[in-house]
Design brief:
The protein is built from 6 helices and 2 strands. The chain is mainly alpha-helical. Helix 1 packs antiparallel against helix 2, helix 3 runs parallel beside helix 5 and helix 4 packs antiparallel against helix 5.
């Protein structure tokens, strides 16, 4: 599932850069794969419980986290996994921000960006809570500081 997830996202990203028609088909395939992965993840959790590092190893936990990170259509699953899986502090920070934004709230670690389209396309930090203390929170989970104009 991890390999399919990454291959489709890589193809979609490259299509944005090279194809005149854009990444359309690859985006569609990515959404379809996310839906299929959602079904399979729930089956695996039902059969074996929530994964742990002891069960799947450190790399396996990171790959599982990435699949959960991409389950934006299922906030409930993301929340349950954040609560019940021992993700690394860094991975947990990314997932927590993703969940908060999915709920229409501000992120707390500043891990999520959006791309501003137009002539000078650039990444823009999505809304954050308590910008003044952002880098203290980032440091606690192993993230580099962001330099913001406050």
């Amino acid at each position: 599932m991890f390999q399919v997830d990454q291959a489709l996202r890589f193809k979609a990203q490259n299509a944005k850069k090279t194809a005149k028609s854009g990444p359309g088909i690859f985006n569609y395939m990515t959404y379809l794969a996310d839906g299929l992965h959602n079904y399979k993840i729930k089956e695996l959790i039902h059969a074996y419980g929530y994964p742990s590092e002891k069960m799947v190893g450190k790399e396996g936990m990171h790959k599982f986290w990435l699949l959960i990170q991409h389950q934006d259509q299922d906030l409930s699953l993301q929340k349950q996994c954040l609560k019940k899986c021992a993700f690394s502090p860094l991975d947990a920070a990314y997932l927590e921000d993703r969940i908060l934004l999915g709920e229409g709230k501000k992120q707390i670690y500043g891990t999520q960006f959006t791309r501003k389209s137009g002539r000078n396309s650039r990444l823009v930090l999505r809304p954050i809570e308590d910008a003044k203390n952002l880098n203290k929170r980032r440091k606690k989970v192993g993230l580099e500081p962001l330099f913001l104009k406050l």
